[in-house]
Amino acid sequence: MSTVKYWQAVNTALHEELERDESVHLFGEDVGMPGGPFAATRGLRERFGEWRVRDTPISESTFTGMAVGAAMAGLRPIAEVMYFDFITLAMDQLVNQAAKMSYMSDGAFAVPLTVRTLCGGHRGSGPQHSQSLEGWLAAVPGLKVVWGGTPADAKGLLKAAVRDDDPVIVIESLSLWTRRGEVPDDPDHVVPIGAGLIRRPGDDVTLVCWGDTVPSALEAAEALAARGVGAEVLDLRTLSPVDEALILRSLDKTGRLVVVQDAQGPCSVGSEVIRLAATDGFASLRAPAAQVCPPFAPVPFAPDLERAYYPGPDDVVSAALGTIEGRDA
Amino acid sequence: MTVQQDTDTTTTSRRLYRTMARIRQFEVAASKLMATGRLPGTLHVSIGQEAVAAGVCDVLRRDDHITTTHRGHGHCLAKGGEPKAMMAELLGRETGYCGGRSGSMHIADPAAGILGANAIVGAGIPIALGGAFAAARQGRGGVAVAFFGEGAVAQGVFHESLNLAALWKLPIVFVCENNQYVELTPVSVHLAAKHVADHAAPYGIPGARGDGNDVTAVRRAAAEAVGRAREGGGPSLLECLTYRWHGHFEGDPQRYRDAAEVAEWKAADPLKRLAATVSGDPSQAAGFTAIEDAARREMADAVAAAEADPVASAGSITAHVYRRPVPGGALA
């Protein structure tokens, strides 16, 4: 184990995968000579050369499409879409091409493609550099979507994505970029796609979180413990497909559900978790589920506005207590 | 030496004619199937445009890559696609290239280097770029060809792809099959530049424009561009001027053009033009007729075989959504 920052864990994962497999190639904006806009690709071009790690023009649709074609032709490309918001420019290649190529070719083609993208929320980045669009991608059959909430998961999920034979979207959090955490040193340590994780056990309420909201869910659980409420923190880690069995097991124990998310509520991964609770998990529920999320509005820039926009630990605590009031009544 | 050259020319002409005849007969057969209600969905045929597919693919190796469009049957056949599996796909049979799940616009075949026909205008261009990137990395002198229509030239990915290919000197040839109508409107509605080939110069790559109904000329231009790409000379843009005899889709009432224009272009039939070059030689002319008859029989057999095959079953609907489904996840 080593204690490293989130971005360093990403950087190590990229080094290890490029080292392990010559078919792995990385391209995107500023990933080569500058070492990445946020240092995630630092040192890679020097070590692996210009063809393995290459700066592209600002052409998200085209370099993502190039990655799709290269994957179909036998390589394992990693395309970096600098900010999550820019993935909208690559949507044809992700939704119509990468996601459907295996299906459309009756399995003849595989697309072992990894797309890394960084969510810029909580940093004053404004309405076009802060969005959480994971629900868009999780709604597309053929794509897998993961989002690590700790340095270890950022590394392990990225490595799993590179080794997977399907297109995987790997979302990373700039809000967690310099947080430290324990990370396994084993170069073959991967976090399996599709497996959620109970980060903190508890008996009274399940807090479902992922990515940016993992720290605030853990902080809320701590505050709830001080009030004698046992909150179970369930980090989804994979957003498509979600670990339904883990969610249902946790609900079976707690009977209460609070979903904590930075994405707006409607048509989101969180609403899908609540759908699961209302269908397969209905018999477990002892209270209405709660969704703690921003208002249905773009992400504002001004620091005060942005703080007011995103849910924080206090909002999670209130929502959790709200699901519990019924028990004591 | 002269005799040898003549033999080579004859062999090449026969091969090109055979490719064009197979495309023509495939398309005619598919068109008839739709007209008689036996082929479901939407169909775009390339009758009249055969010389572009035949001329370009004649200089490609089996391991070279192509991408093509919604009007892509010809390119797939010329690149080595199997007509029976193609016809079965058009007819929604489980023996089709895509198990009947994709239809006419998505023929794909790794063994023949076909990285997919594509129903999104322009989308195949960056995918071909990926084929070229992989070829450059694999170091076997492979190239990629992106076939697209003039309508795709208005899409951003066309310009982005020329730019990136030029910057990285990728082994790719951009082949624009300019049939002069973008769906239901003439090219003048779509492109500000006078010619598609004019877009090569701003990106600093060679561009050429020529008669896309002259298969020998197409082959010559393609040989030069493909040869350059193979030798590390980077990308080129070819504009092949041609015309589709049928509508944008089968059943298109074609109110946007008149019969006289269609008749004029039918007179410039690429098959007849190649046949005319051997009309002074009765034995060769007879050879061409025999090639055409064989192609007609081949496609009739493909139709008969495909129609006898089972239709795709509902049990296969979720197959191959993922190569590696997540245990416990959807579709596991």
Automatic annotation (TrEMBL), chain A:
Cofactor: thiamine diphosphate
Gene3D superfamilies xrefs: 3.40.50.920, 3.40.50.970
Molecular-function GO terms, alphabetical: magnesium ion binding; oxidoreductase activity
Signal peptide: none
UniProt keyword annotation of tRNA processing present: no
CDD domains in UniProt: TPP_PYR_E1-PDHc-beta_like (cd07036)
Boundaries of every Transketolase-like pyrimidine-binding domain copy: 4-178
Keyword Oxidoreductase annotated: yes
Keywords per UniProt: Oxidoreductase, Thiamine pyrophosphate
Protein name: Alpha-ketoacid dehydrogenase subunit beta
Organism per entry: Actinomadura soli
Automatic annotation (TrEMBL), chain B:
GO molecular function, one term: magnesium ion binding
All copies of domain Dehydrogenase E1 component, residue ranges: 19-312
Gene3D superfamilies per the UniProt record, alphabetical: 3.40.50.970
Superkingdom of origin: Bacteria
InterPro entries recorded: DH_E1, PDH_E1_Alpha_Subunit, THDP-binding
Key words of the record: Oxidoreductase, Thiamine pyrophosphate
Reported cofactor(s): thiamine diphosphate
Protein's UniProt keywords contain Ribonucleoprotein: no
UniProt-listed SUPFAM superfamilies: Thiamin diphosphate-binding fold (THDP-binding)
Gene Ontology process terms (BP): pyruvate decarboxylation to acetyl-CoA
PANTHER family in UniProt: PYRUVATE DEHYDROGENASE E1 COMPONENT SUBUNIT ALPHA (PTHR11516:SF60), PYRUVATE DEHYDROGENASE E1 COMPONENT, ALPHA SUBUNIT BACTERIAL AND ORGANELLAR (PTHR11516)
Record's protein name: Thiamine pyrophosphate-dependent dehydrogenase E1 component subunit alpha
Lineage, top ranks: Bacteria, Bacillati, Actinomycetota, Actinomycetes, Streptosporangiales
